[in-house]
Amino acid sequence: MGWDALAQWGEDVVRIERLAGGVANDVWSVRIGGRLAVARLGRRSDADLAWETGVLQHLDRQGLTVPVSIPTRDGRLFADGLVVMEYMAGGPPETQADWRRVADTLREVHRLTQGWPQRPGWRSSTDLLHAETGTRIDLNAMPPEGVARCRAAWARIAGRQTCVVHGNPGNPGNIRVSADGIALIDWDEAHVDVPDLDLVLPHNAAGLEGEAYDTAAQASAAWEAAVCWKDDYAVRRLAEVRAV
């Protein structure tokens, strides 16, 4: 159905301009009922979108600032691959203090989602110690030596408590800093994993030290290499994962 699905939110909904949405989605600012919102059209399944919108509703109810879904006229949180979300005002983090607030917010996300079920079709980093594929990841496409290095990095975090991780909080474009606090946007890569993957931030804002920082940094680099393989960024990230 494509963008025709937007009519399910009302006859007065209009697209304004395309926003940065990555390769997986088409993202636009829209006006709905006289207010600014963000609409994202992609190919995610209904089960996948139900998981994402459910997580965001839960975090919103717990007092965090996240882009919750605006329902269709008949009360659905998404329709035909389209999600319409609240617009989050603010700008990217600019200071070390801003990033420390981001780290605090991420830790609250992790605390509030311990034991959450996995996103449909996804694998965690430690699942990939034995599995070969999961959503955008296909370890068979990577060099065997690179897979061995990634798995060695993930083995170091095996057995830890899991929770919902944002998936890409180190990208300043996924954070909004405003007078109201810290908002985390773009949850398209969120899934259940070990929280360390979210805590490798600019300025080491999460305050990880020594072995803890090295473990998190290696696991995070391995994850980003696998999930983005094989673009230039993924190749650079894999180069950061040490041989064992």
TrEMBL record:
<dbReference type="InterPro" id="IPR011009">
    <property type="entry name" value="Kinase-like_dom_sf"/>
</dbReference>
<feature type="domain" description="Aminoglycoside phosphotransferase">
    <location>
        <begin position="16"/>
        <end position="218"/>
    </location>
</feature>
<dbReference type="GO" id="GO:0016740">
    <property type="term" value="F:transferase activity"/>
</dbReference>
<dbReference type="Pfam" id="PF01636">
    <property type="entry name" value="APH"/>
</dbReference>
<keyword id="KW-0808">Transferase</keyword>
<protein>
    <submittedName>
        <fullName>Aminoglycoside phosphotransferase</fullName>
    </submittedName>
</protein>
<dbReference type="InterPro" id="IPR002575">
    <property type="entry name" value="Aminoglycoside_PTrfase"/>
</dbReference>
